[in-house]
Automatic annotation (TrEMBL):
Organism name: Spiroplasma diminutum CUAS-1
Enzyme Commission identifier(s): 6.3.4.21
Pathway participation: Cofactor biosynthesis; NAD(+) biosynthesis; nicotinate D-ribonucleotide from nicotinate: step 1/1
Signal sequence coordinates: none
UniProt protein name: nicotinate phosphoribosyltransferase
Keywords, in A-Z order: Glycosyltransferase, Ligase, Phosphoprotein, Pyridine nucleotide biosynthesis, Transferase
Domain Quinolinate phosphoribosyl transferase N-terminal span(s) in chain numbering: 24-110
GO molecular function: nicotinate phosphoribosyltransferase activity; nicotinate-nucleotide diphosphorylase (carboxylating) activity
A GO biological process held by the record: NAD+ biosynthetic process
Coiled coil, from the record: none
Catalytic activity: 5-phospho-alpha-D-ribose 1-diphosphate + nicotinate + ATP + H2O = nicotinate beta-D-ribonucleotide + ADP + phosphate + diphosphate; nicotinate beta-D-ribonucleotide + CO2 + diphosphate = quinolinate + 5-phospho-alpha-D-ribose 1-diphosphate + 2 H(+)
EC main group: ligase
Length: 347
């Protein structure tokens, strides 16, 4: 039986279930074995992009439980605070151990999808590169790549990120600072080595190693002429690029990668015959910083985003709201009707 999301089968041995769910399951199996309960999952933020429903469907399919009535929103649906996204009706014993598990799946995947959607919405159609692999535990790459895609960011940098996607890996990336360091800080030698080993790749050059983005960009573009696809700026927020150090600064607006630096780089590239060279920016970019750059018409072609993909955690919770069809719930968590959830098949 195909395991679409590479589900760890120890799930069905309660390996990932909180102890109190397991104990409640045993108690109800003894005293209320035929009781039908309806559990409802929701969260408390506006404009949340729901992701993880397909993973939950796969878990239910692999569980081989046949008599559950499952209702859910579609993957990628946008919901608001308190709107139910998933309801399961059946014998509690058949799905009690999934309560916390499903909370976590929805929380993680919807957080990634929602952040991706917000970033895409402010990027004005420009490419966004998901570089979140360096910001989280490596085993999250598969689900994060899937959720990122649901949110609209499909440019990923690791093979693992594509594992749950139907598309084949189309890896995007640039040289790291480590490559330049290995050639004693000589950007031209590092670039030549990259080009020689990967001649069919787009030549993307990292130009902030010496904190001299303008001059190093011109050096590499003049040397390699029409072979350079893009230059990437990744200046630390603690630094001011050498090209801007004679300018007056207010509120640190010249620190790190900033609109003034990007505009100056675009101007100098164009003046020197490199109008086709794209500009990639990274280092601290999130929804707000991208919007700031776009509001100032900053000539960025591609945004690299890392930490912003996983911040602003969205928390889900599941609660029993009906027992044998009658209202029964914790105060404030009553059964909520929604025309967004539909009955779904999982097997």
């Amino acid at each position: 039986m195909k395991n679409k999301f590479n589900i760890d089968l120890k799930i069905f041995e309660n390996y990932y279930s909180a102890d109190y769910f397991k104990k409640t399951r045993e108690i109800l199996n003894k005293f209320k074995p035929n009781q039908l309960v309806t559990m409802q999952w929701f969260q408390r933020k506006e404009n949340t992009v729901i992701c993880g429903i397909e993973v939950i469907k796969e878990i239910l399919r692999l569980s081989e439980v046949k008599d559950l009535n499952v209702e859910a929103v579609e993957e990628g649906e946008v919901v608001n605070s308190l709107e139910p996204v998933l309801k399961i009706t059946g014998k509690y014993n058949n799905f009690a151990h999934f309560e916390g598990l499903f909370d976590g799946i929805l929380s993680r995947a919807s957080t990634i999808a929602t952040n991706a959607k917000k970033i895409i919405n402010v990027a004005n159609g420009k490419m966004v590169l998901n570089m979140n692999d360096r910001m989280d535990y490596y085993t999250n790459q598969q689900i994060d790549g899937y959720a990122s895609s649901i949110g609209g960011i499909t440019n990923l940098v690791t093979e693992a990120s594509f594992e749950f996607l139907e598309s084949q890996p189309n890896l995007n990336g640039t040289m790291p600072h480590a490559l330049i360091a290995s050639f004693d800080g000589d950007l031209l030698k590092a670039t030549e080595a990259y080009k020689e080993v990967f001649p069919n790749n787009n030549l993307v050059v990292l130009v902030d190693y010496n904190n001299d983005c303008i001059n190093d960009s011109l050096r590499v573009c003049n040397n390699f002429r029409n072979e350079v696809y893009a230059v990437r700026l990744d200046t630390s927020p603690s630094l001011v690029d050498k090209s801007l150090q004679n300018l007056n600064e207010k509120d640190n607006e010249l620190h790190g990668v900033n609109p003034t630096l990007v505009k100056l780089l675009r101007e100098k590239l164009d003046e020197n015959g490199h109008k086709n060279v794209k500009i990639i920016v990274s280092s601290g970019f999130d929804e707000n910083k991208i919007k700031y750059f776009e509001d100032l018409n900053t000539p960025v072609d591609i945004y690299g985003v890392g930490e912003a993909i996983t911040k602003n955690k969205i928390a889900f919770t599941g609660d029993i709201v009906l027992i044998d069809g009658k209202k029964q719930s914790k105060f404030g968590r009553e059964n909520v009707l929604s025309n967004k959830i539909k009955s779904i098949k999982y097997n």
